[in-house]
Amino acid sequence: MKNIFIEYPKCSTCKKAKAWLEEKNINFEDRNIVEDTPTLQELTEWIEKSGLDLKKWFNTSGLKYKELNLKDKLGSMTDEEKIKLLASDGKLIKRPLLISDKEVYVGFKEEQWKALI
To answer: Would you call 97 helix, strand, or coil by DSSP?
Structure first.
């Protein structure tokens, strides 16, 4: 499987992560998180593979997250409802995402991403 890099092009952290991947000559397929939002099936698979708490997948600093008052609502939602919500709007998903054969990375942490090299 090829690495999939999912980003919002205007995001400064995404730009930094993309530059890092290019600098390290890591091949990847580039996807815009808004124009090509991950599907319910993709998210379900990736969330499980990541081993992260579902809450970590939400872009808590995003306007949409705040608009929908998700800080107060997530606690009473099922995991299935949360994943459906994420699949409904790419701006709700924490970014960038990097999906590799072995790992799923949510957000850019250089130390973590070095495992790809």
So the answer is: strand
Taking the CB of residue 3, how many other CB atoms lie within 10 A of it? 17
Indicate the number of domains in the chain.
1
Domain harbouring 56, CATH code: 3.40.30.10
Q: Write b or e for each residue in 41-79: b if 16 or more Cβ atoms lie within 10 A of its Cβ, otherwise e.
A: eebbebbeebebeeeebbbeebeebeeeebeeebeeeee
Q: What are phi and psi of 13, to 5 degrees?
A: -65, -40
Whole-model pTM over 0.90: yes
Query: Position 49: which residue type?
Result: K
- Judge whether 57 and 86 are in contact, CB under 8 Å: yes
Between CA 30 and CA 19 the distance in angstroms is 12
Amino acid at 17: A
Range of the domain at 21: 4-116
Count the helices and strands in the chain (H runs, E runs).
Answer: 6, 4
pLDDT band at residue 102 using 50, 70 and 90 as cut-offs: confident
